[in-house]
Each structure stands twice: as structure tokens, then as C-alpha cells.
Design a protein that fits this description.
It is a single-pass membrane protein. Belongs to the FliL family. It is found in: Cell inner membrane; Cell membrane. It is a single chain. By secondary structure, this protein is α+β, with helices and mostly antiparallel strands. It has helices at about 10-65, 105-110, 115-125, 130, 135-155, and strands spanning about 70-85, 90-100, 165-170. It has five helices and three strands, in the order H-E-E-H-H-H-H-E. It has a three-stranded antiparallel beta sheet with strand order 1-2-3. It is elongated and about 100 Å long. The protein starts with 9 loop residues before the first helix and ends with a strand.
């Protein structure tokens, strides 16, 4: 009982190997084409899907008030005040900018600029030098200045014309 081996043609055996490689190459090309097709389809789907959503926020934005851009008014010249700290003369120079959102309200407040500058000079000169050395003391002074200016704006113009008082330069000596 001998095994019979089928005679194989060497030409047929040689064709089997390239046919396997050819199938592999075809599968890779088909896979790449499929991936590209899915990518293009998904991109088209999501771009078309987001187009109607772009119209919806416009309707929502019209209902909500839009925050206006900030307007800055620099108070020139800078404020210079003096202190008497432990028998020694001390000085502070502060450059101030007002931040507002409404130009008309800011223009209405400019009429009262002498009163505003007077309030700020009195506020700055009434401070304790020791507390102004610290960052917390400087921030507290800025908040007090903001409250003082907002109070004046409310009293004189009927609106809170100034959102913040900003110190653009502060020098202690």
C-alpha cells in the first residue's frame, strides 16, 4: 500500500504562489478604497448634518443679549497722591483706565470727570501704605475704585456706565 502521489505540474505549482500574492494585493487595494469611501461618506454626512444646526444658534442668539465689546477710557494725567507713613513721606502714582460697554453712557460720564477724579484722589490718598504693598491690598483698592466710580455713574447718569476700573500702572515709593 504505497501512497500514490499525483503528478504535479511544475508550471501549476509556480502559478499558485503569485495567485496568492495577487489576492493579497487585491484585498489590500479593496480595503483602502473602502476606507477612503467611508471617510468621504462620513465627512459629507457630518458636513450636511451641521448645516441646519448653524441656523439654530442664530435664532437663539437673537433672543439672548449679545455682550458688547469693551471700550477703554484712559484717565490722563495719572493720579499722584502722597502719604505720611511712620513720619516718612510716601508717594503713589496710579494710571487708571475705565472699562465700559456703552459709549453713550461713557460720554455722559465724561461730563462729570472733575467729580470722578476728585473721588479717586480722595480714595487713593486715604489708603494705608502698608496694605498697598501687598497684591491683595492693590486689588482691594481697585475694587473700591470701581465701586466709587459705579456709584457716581449711577447717581449722575442713572446707569452703571463703567464695568471696571483698571490700574494700568501703579508705583509706590
Amino acid at each position: 500500500m504505497a501512497k500514490k502521489s499525483a503528478p504535479q505540474d511544475p508550471a501549476a505549482a509556480a502559478e499558485g504562489k503569485p495567485a496568492g500574492k495577487m489576492k493579497l494585493i487585491i484585498l489590500i487595494v479593496v480595503g483602502l478604497l473602502l476606507a477612503i469611501g467611508i471617510s468621504v461618506g462620513a465627512t459629507w454626512f457630518f458636513l450636511n448634518k451641521s448645516a441646519p444646526e448653524a441656523e439654530v444658534p442664530e435664532a437663539v442668539e437673537s433672543q439672548e443679549p449679545v455682550k458688547q465689546t469693551a471700550i477703554y477710557e484712559e484717565l490722563v494725567p495719572a493720579f499722584v497722591v502722597n502719604f505720611n507713613h511712620k513720619g516718612r513721606a510716601r508717594y503713589m502714582q496710579v494710571s487708571v483706565a475705565l472699562m465700559a460697554r456703552d459709549q453713550a453712557a461713557l460720554d455722559a460720564l465724561k461730563v462729570h470727570m472733575p467729580v470722578l477724579r476728585n473721588r479717586l484722589v480722595m480714595l487713593f490718598s486715604s489708603q494705608d501704605f502698608e496694605s498697598l504693598i501687598t497684591p491683595v491690598g492693590k486689588e482691594m483698592l481697585r475694587q473700591q475704585a470701581t465701586a466709587s466710580v459705579q456709584e457716581l455713574a449711577q447717581k449722575e447718569t442713572g446707569k452703571l456706565a463703567v464695568e471696571q476700573v483698571l490700574f494700568t500702572n501703579l508705583v509706590l515709593q
